[in-house]
Amino acid sequence: MGESETLSHETIKDIEEYVCEIYGNRELSSVNKARFEIFLDCYKPKSNQSPFGGIKNFEASQIPPCKDTLICKIRRTNQIAATWKFAFSEKPNFFNPEGNGWVEEDGEYKINWFESEQFPQNLNEALVASDDSSEVESEDAHSSDDDE
């Protein structure tokens, strides 16, 4: 981390697998799949009588970040690592914060949590995305390849 402004798809995939392991899903390599599995394990209905009974005590810290958020966090970490790595140099090579997990608003840098839409535009998009996980994986791989 911190050597190059762009990270390889392999590096991002390795970090994603590591995050899955941290959250107890060693058999999974996708944080989005791990999120779904952990959510189901914790909050799936115990009976048909109260299908939403367990959700009222939802604790979001128990699930990993989604892939889009994770990539933004990885980019910020890489940018900060580079800042520290080159801090001793007479002419440090700083990476531009924009595009590396930060956005400029009103002359200040603020954390960029998402690159894409946070929520689907309609329910149909959410249902189609959950039915075709291979399409989501393909889009994730494509967005990561653009980072290289």
Hey, roughly how much beta strand do the residues contain? Answer: 5-15%
Give the overall form: elongated
Widest β-sheet, arrangement of strands: 1-2
Q: Give the helix tally.
A: 5
Q: Main β-sheet: number of strands, strand sense, barrel status? A: 2 strands, antiparallel
Helix content: 40-55%
Return the structural class: mainly alpha
Unreliable stretches covering 5 or more consecutive residues:
133-148
- State the distance separating the first and last CA atoms: 14 Å
Secondary-structure element order, as H and E?
A: HHHEEHH
Mean pLDDT: 76
Q: State Rg.
A: 18 Å
Describe the protein's architecture and organization.
The protein is built from five helices and two strands, in the order H-H-H-E-E-H-H. It is mostly helical and 148 residues long. The chain has one domain (9-146). It has a two-stranded antiparallel ribbon with strand order 1-2.
Q: Main attributes?
A:
single chain; two-stranded antiparallel sheet; elongated; 148 residues; 2 strands; 5 helices; mainly alpha; disordered C terminus
How is the topology of this model organized?
Layout: H1 9-22, H2 31-43, H3 67-85, E1 102-105, E2 108-111, H4 123-131, H5 133-146
Antiparallel strand pairs: 1-2
